[in-house]
Amino acid sequence: MIRVLLVDDQALIRGGFRALLDAEDDIAVVGEAADGREGVALARAHLPDVALVDVQMPEMDGIEATRRIAADPGLADVHVVILTNYGFDEYVFDALRAGATGFLVKDVEPADLLHAVRVAARGDALLAPAITRRLIASFMTHPPRPGPVADGAELTGREREVVALVARGLSNNEIADRLVISPLTAKTHVSRALAKLGLRDRVQLVVFAYETGLVAPGG
């Protein structure tokens, strides 16, 4: 059973999502919070697999809530999916940097919401190659504000190649074809890069690649 926590200050949004999620045999909503502070507390109390967290809330916003969840060793298995009204708004990059697995627009189709929850519960990033390309396009016109990041010096030359290709929106299979290696080897390089950089998933690899200049927007 996939356990989901809803964190949004709009009761109508929480109610709609709960009704949709609870109707599924493999998903159960274990808690609701109206602000980020309560959301972090409920995450610690219920240990959900997925937390759907709104960006803008009173008391504590979704970015800070995400940061606290990601930094808590006891919540390592909680995957945060950010909810936004505007798609690629100014908060998305900060949320991804804070440790979010991905993001959804609040008017998402029901089937896409259910798919997203199941993907996040597996620990996979909610950025398929097509979505990654949209993120890249957004970098070109709205680069994220600078923040402290690793410089990537610990990566091997091949790992840097792989990270750059991830940032270009390529899947593991596409990376394997480009570098003439097996998909398993490509996946291993991605995993090693994540471990060396202390990052959670491919989403943060994309942010890392652009923030450090490993890949230049439009290049």
TrEMBL record:
<dbReference type="Pfam" id="PF00196">
    <property type="entry name" value="GerE"/>
</dbReference>
<feature type="modified residue" description="4-aspartylphosphate">
    <location>
        <position position="54"/>
    </location>
</feature>
<dbReference type="InterPro" id="IPR016032">
    <property type="entry name" value="Sig_transdc_resp-reg_C-effctor"/>
</dbReference>
<feature type="domain" description="HTH luxR-type">
    <location>
        <begin position="148"/>
        <end position="213"/>
    </location>
</feature>
<dbReference type="Pfam" id="PF00072">
    <property type="entry name" value="Response_reg"/>
</dbReference>
<feature type="domain" description="Response regulatory">
    <location>
        <begin position="3"/>
        <end position="121"/>
    </location>
</feature>
<keyword id="KW-0238">DNA-binding</keyword>
<dbReference type="GO" id="GO:0003677">
    <property type="term" value="F:DNA binding"/>
</dbReference>
<dbReference type="InterPro" id="IPR001789">
    <property type="entry name" value="Sig_transdc_resp-reg_receiver"/>
</dbReference>
<keyword id="KW-0804">Transcription</keyword>
<dbReference type="InterPro" id="IPR058245">
    <property type="entry name" value="NreC/VraR/RcsB-like_REC"/>
</dbReference>
<dbReference type="InterPro" id="IPR011006">
    <property type="entry name" value="CheY-like_superfamily"/>
</dbReference>
<dbReference type="InterPro" id="IPR039420">
    <property type="entry name" value="WalR-like"/>
</dbReference>
<dbReference type="GO" id="GO:0000160">
    <property type="term" value="P:phosphorelay signal transduction system"/>
</dbReference>
<dbReference type="InterPro" id="IPR000792">
    <property type="entry name" value="Tscrpt_reg_LuxR_C"/>
</dbReference>
<dbReference type="GO" id="GO:0006355">
    <property type="term" value="P:regulation of DNA-templated transcription"/>
</dbReference>
<keyword id="KW-0597">Phosphoprotein</keyword>
<keyword id="KW-0805">Transcription regulation</keyword>
<protein>
    <submittedName>
        <fullName>DNA-binding NarL/FixJ family response regulator</fullName>
    </submittedName>
</protein>
